[in-house]
Amino acid sequence: MPFEVSDLAEMDAPEKEYLWTLNFGPQHPATHTTLRLVLTLDGETVVNAVPHIGYLHSGFEKLGEHLDFNQYVTIVDRMNYISPLANEIAWHHAVEKLLGIELTPRCKYLRTILAELMRLHDHLLNVGTTGLDLGAFTAFLYAFYQREKIYDIVETASGQRFHTSYTRVGGVMFDVNNAWVDKVRDFLKGFMPVHAEVHRLLTRNRIFIDRIKGVGYLSPEDAISMGVTGPLARASGVLRDLRKDEPYLAYPDLDFKVVASKDGDCYGRYLVRMQEMLESVKIIEQCLENIPAGPVNIDAETHIVPPAKPAVYRSIEGLIQHFEVMMPNRGYDTPRDEIYAATESPNGELGFYIVGDGSPRAYRARTRPPSYIHFAVFPHIIKGHQLSDVVAVLGSLNIIAAELDR
Amino acid sequence: MSTEDVLKSKFLDDTLTFSQFRDNRRVVVPAAKLQAIFQCLKSDLGFDMLSEVTAVDYLEYEGATDRFGVVYVFINVATGERLVLKTFVNDPKPTLPSAYSLWKSADWLEREVFDMFGITFTGHPDLRRILTPDEFTANPLRKDYPLKGRGERHNFPVVTRAES
Amino acid sequence: MAMKDVPDNIFMTTLDAAASWARANSLWPMPFATACCGIELMATASSRFDLARFGAEVMRFSPRQCDLMIVAGRVAMKMLPVLQRIWLQMPEPKWCISMGACACTGGVFDTYAVVQGIDRFIPVDMYIPGCPPRPEQLMAGIIALQDKIKHGGTLNGTEFARRDHSTGPVPFDKDELIRIREANEQLISLN
């Protein structure tokens, strides 16, 4: 199957010969990964943009039909690799809703901390690379250093630095200890000065503002009609945050604000992300103060989580429970029903539609990826802007190609 | 008046099946009435966001009578209400009306369903393959398509070191 | 001129060794970053790990300026023709690192859309395992590649001429071969 620019012909009208066509991607540094745009330009003004996607399509949803609920978490990880744990939490949130499992309070708080750490993770990268694409290299290095610290934290909890595969149906892989809690506290202490530093570097930087202020405007009506969620929608003034609207995990107990802006442009999105980081820090601090003691997994009697290792080695009940979970022909009773469940991932509403057929694997595991919806908005908001604004708008949309193509 | 009541009063002689599972409120509608129900949801009930369109292939599902189920998730942004709507279509030519004229987000979501399941949407402005290459002939998420494909992934010329 | 007449600060070497030494220590990578490994590649280049210590930090995104392609992440069947074209655009001498399990073998993605190892279709000089490899591992891979260049390189690249067949595995699965033939026939009948 040779590589062809097949869609150019339909865009070229003969009377508009002064228009020219530019192929952007799929291998281009400003696309971060594998996006491709075919731009029609009048001089430097973008007249039309046709996105082509699928350059990283890897059959995630097909794989989801062949792996069980705990195995598929390793695949879900690789979907949004900027914030892997947020995907795991979303996936197991949907599975637990399908199975009707209520988590333990400690697990809820722990997952909330991790979800908010991932929000920091994502927004740091987004702010850093937005600056990098517009020529401000320093903020990128600051952001990446903080990301390394978050990597350390999740590595301490799970043993893996990047793709943690940390959550399990009904709990997590291992519990964390007090040293880990102290580590998160230390990180938050060091994070605040860096956040202020990035503010000083970018927020009132004249070049940065000139490049992104008023660029890529998205009106609230269009945002709703196009299904936009997350920081993008909130930057356009759509007050929608699943953490408040459909509370899950420990969010009902916590005190935090939904950040929004009326600007609707790239600068507004940047400011919303910067402010959301502060709210995330607030949430993590509250969780760390209030994290309850007790077991992190649900009761092993339910035959959903394996029992603790000492119980397996020292008691016959524990051994039987272990086998009940691990044997391929046993496992849990999945209802023969379908569920849609969504969480507020850093990028927006990350939902899963799962069809259960009684077996421990999904009959259909559909992802509702925020990046996919957001990239469809791109041609709409780029029209009339300059070629150099393409990079700025792409950066502010925060498209993750693996989540886009799955 | 709740969403269910409004839908029941509007479509008296049609078989709308309402159900609830966990916090999902669901309705199953006949495919023939889909366009009218879309119109009602958008203008009368205020569901202004189409959050998700997907499909399920029930080929190997025990006890299923229809081949494809197409699922829509609607959100009313003002009230935060969510509705899961489902309809069934069958081979040989699964066809549904497009929701693009009412919700713009249907554009890419319907293209993906077309690409992955081969369900066509009449009235869609630009129904092309989106994730797989243009030359691709199969619909990968159908249950009769194997996980490892039919060899498309290895159907390329080889570049060796001596010739590059 | 006898050896004793040579001043102290003159080194004697072969032209091949001198060229390889210079090439090995000034690699210009082209990050072909498609997925997760690309983020680790970025982390390797940024402040904590600092790839600049090994003379390979000049990331150039244009293939015409580079001599080392780092394929970081899985390559889908839609992307492979792009990868081949970019590889052909790079000037000689050039090397290729296959970073991560997905680029080496397909990794966890044994599905219809993912190429099961890029070495089936383009030549690869160094494989780095891991999903994704840690930055330390990527650096170890680059150092190993430098070593390979220093010890096997020639001035006019004659060592490449011998590699005239694909180094990767051919599809070993008999069913897969049959499926490929069927897909080919289907394509021909459609056109």
User: Beta-strand level of the residues of chain A, as a percent range?
Assistant: 5-15%
Ranges of chain B where pLDDT stays below 50 over 5 or more residues in a row are none
N/C terminus separation of chain B: 70 Å
If you average the pLDDT of chain A, what whole number results? Answer: 85
Shape of chain B: elongated
SSE series of chain B: HEEHEEEEHE
Question: Major sheet of chain A: order of its strands?
Answer: 1-2-3
State the total count of DSSP E strands of chain A: 8
Distance between the termini of chain A: 21 Å
For the biggest sheet of chain B, the summary is: 5 strands, mixed
Strand proportion of chain B, as a percent range, falls in 25-35%
Strand arrangement, major sheet of chain B: 1-2-5-4-3
Helix content of chain A: 40-55%
Using only C-alpha atoms, the radius of gyration of chain B works out to 19 Å
Q: C-alpha Rg of chain A, in Å?
A: 23 Å
Largest β sheet strand count, sense and barrel closure of chain A: 3 strands, antiparallel
Overall description:
The complex is a heterotrimer of chains A (406), B (164) and C (191). Chain A contains 17 helices and eight strands. In chain A, helix 5 packs antiparallel against helix 6 (137-158), helix 5 (105-133) runs antiparallel to helix 12 and helix 5 (105-133) runs antiparallel to helix 16 (387-397). In chain A, strand 2 and strand 3 (45-52) form a beta hairpin. Chain A has 406 residues and is mainly α. Mean pLDDT of chain A is 85; it is low at 1-9. Helix content of chain B is 18%, strand content 26%. The termini of chain B are far apart. Chain C is built from seven helices and four strands, in the order H-E-H-E-H-E-H-E-H-H-H. Chain C has helices spanning 15-24, 36-45, 80-89, 101-105, 135-152, 158-161, 174-190, and strands at 29-33, 68-72, 95-99, 126-128. A four-stranded parallel β-sheet of chain C has the order 1-2-3-4. The longest helix of chain C has 18 residues, at 135-152. Chain C is globular, with a radius of gyration of 20 Å. Chains in contact: A-B, A-C, B-C.
